[in-house]
Specification:
Elements (H helix, E strand, L loop, with lengths): L10 E4 L5 H13 L3 E5 L16 H12 E2 L5 E7 L2 E8 L8 E2 L2 E6 L2 E4 L2 H11 L19 H15 L8 H6 L4 E2 L2 E2 L1 H7 L12 E6 L7 E7 L3 H14 L3 E6 L4 E6 L3 H13 L9 E5 L3 E7 L8 H4 L10 H9 L9 H11 L6 E4 L3 E7 L5 H6 L4 H13 L1 E2 L1 H8 L3 H13 L3 E4 L6 E4 L2
Parallel strand pairs: 1-2, 11-15
Antiparallel strand pairs: 2-5, 3-6, 4-5, 6-7, 7-8, 9-10, 11-12, 13-14, 15-16, 16-18, 17-18, 19-21, 20-21
Helix pairs in contact: 1-2, 7-8, 8-11, 14-15
Amino acid sequence: MKSFSKESERIEFKQSLAESKDIVKTVAAFSNTHGGNIYVGIQDDGTVSGVEIGKNSVEKLANSIKQNTDPCIYPLINVKEKAGKKIIDITVSENDSKPVFAFGRAYKRVGKTNQRLGQNEIRKLSLQSANMSWDCQICRDASLEDIDEEKVRYFLKTAGRKRDLDIKYDSIEEALLKPGGFKKEGLTNVCVLMFAKDPLRFFLQSEVKCGRFKGITTREFIDMAEFSGSVQEQIDRAEKFVLRNIKKTAWIEPGTMERQEKWEYPLDAIREAVTNAIAHRDYRSTSGVQIRIFDDRIQVWNPGTLPEGWTIETLKKEHESKPYNPLLARMLFLIKYIEKWGRGTTDIVNDCITHGLPEPDFEDTGTAIVVTFWKSKLTADRIEQLDLNERQIKAVEYLKENKTITRLTYESYFHCSKKTAYNDLQDLMDKEIINRKGEGKNIYYEIIL
């Protein structure tokens, strides 16, 4: 007889007390996540099989949980009757002090399984439990002698000008107190990132690696650079690297004969992605932020993971602000490097669409968040599948650069007849590569990205 639903993030079934070790692991996993109930005497499919309960069974179970968890967990344990059989209901609450270890190892509940936490996840959970993010921690090796006073003054002056703040101070210590970069225990990590003479001396991972590659793979470099310095300097230098490695296209608008020009990619979106990667990255990771520029795309790699409960789809719609480094985000907000809290990724999507580019891809690799800006979704692989002739393939490449083409231009470019040009263009429309625009003598064809 089935009396229970399936196992889930908050429900676990055990057939007997012989599985005491697994019970303790589940207690720890529930304690580290959202709590839950363990039912002993229930089979995996939810069938009530019952459990034999001796004189001291419940006491022994409670002691086993207490002795093998750190910090000690004292769940609520009750004996109940279901379908005429006895079961044990172990109710576990989410613990305020995390992580909770079982047999010296930490676990978390994912779906209906208990997964062991790695060192980075343990540190992250510990910081969350202490309500202190990495950027707010004290950098023990840093002192005021490591701080560039000119950077502090420039920051406060910029914040005053851009946010209309009247920030007064009599000493460098007082100045650092204003944005939260200094505590009585010492300099915070964000203070070192923003104002140190050489942040890289304290945090080797605090740099941005940029590469311009030949073609669409990482096999061959055309240009390469690594930028350290303050967070602001990294953002500005990375943006300049992108600018020197992308093109500004120009064309004559059919029908108006006006010259139009714009960068291959929306600069606001690129800067937003770079700023997000540097501001919201996991600085405990040994990886650095990376910007990879290819012939067909730009990728921005951010070491870290999404906030708990978020998915890639969350980034594409309006969402609350959950900065991984809230103090760093606040500092960048004060100098207008971050403008709209919780809207950065949606702005990136909208900027690309407005610019005439495809919607960018967001990917969570498990160790990094990757944003990919495409010139066109008409990649070499897709073009190969469309069974285009040689003229049409070259026409697609022409359209990627010039956006539009007329039938006369097609005839002249490929030295073909009017009929051939018409048939080729009609086939490209049938395959949803181009659209026909305009009327009469002003007809032209526009690429569909």
